[in-house]
Hints:
single chain, TIM Barrel, 8-stranded parallel β-barrel, 11 helices, 8 strands, binds 1,3-dihydroxyacetonephosphate
Amino acid sequence: MARRLLIAGNWKMNQTKREAVAFAEAVATRLAAGRPDADLLICPPATLVDAMTGASSGSGLAIGGQDCHTAKNGAHTGDIAAPMLKDLGASHVIVGHSERRADHGETNAVVRDKAAAAHASGLVAIICIGETEAERDAGKTLAIVESQFAQSLPAGATPDNTVIAYEPVWAIGTGRTPPLPEVAEVHAAIRASAENALGAEAAARLRILYGGSMKPSNARELLALDDVDGGLIGGASLKVEDYWAIVTAGTAAV
Ligand code: 13P
């Protein structure tokens, strides 16, 4: 089953409006010269979504949020609702990133409700799961990832409205990545869990991204793995040259 790669950048709490617009324009220029066989997405801070959807409009670069509230509006100071992201032209939203699970105490149940809110607004939810280093050392990687998947997936999830991102917490921002066979094993386990939850046909279409220290030098081998359908890239997505090098490495890998 051929799944189209999704090369997604998570900018976290970085970049100014000027940098964001310059990035979107530079990617749009590259896309005008030739479209790679992959979907391209950047998830900037919410402050930059409007400027980036404007600057990338029609180019083939999609823009997403990094989080949304479970509710569609209301008295939640400082939070952002999924319909607000949709209103600015966003197409995706990341939910359940390990930094939000750690910094904001988000449980699987909260992540599931955020994904459901994303779906209700017509956004694709990118649901993040992944084990900590202690869990990995204890041999619990598959058990943790499988239970996070099962508990974070809302009713109504389909391969069209949901993407899974496997991000080992210990690989984020550390320059370390799991050995390729381990990445392959975890992605295969997630797909097997998806078969249970969604059925074989949907599971075969579900995109499962890898995230955690993906960069131009390791993207090709990671993206060439059978069940790795793209990347969720932090640091290396901040510079156009690095992001684009990952796009081209990925499309050369498949
Ligand atoms: P790095 O690519 O900086 O390791 O971050 C990965 C990540 O957390 C993407 O969501």
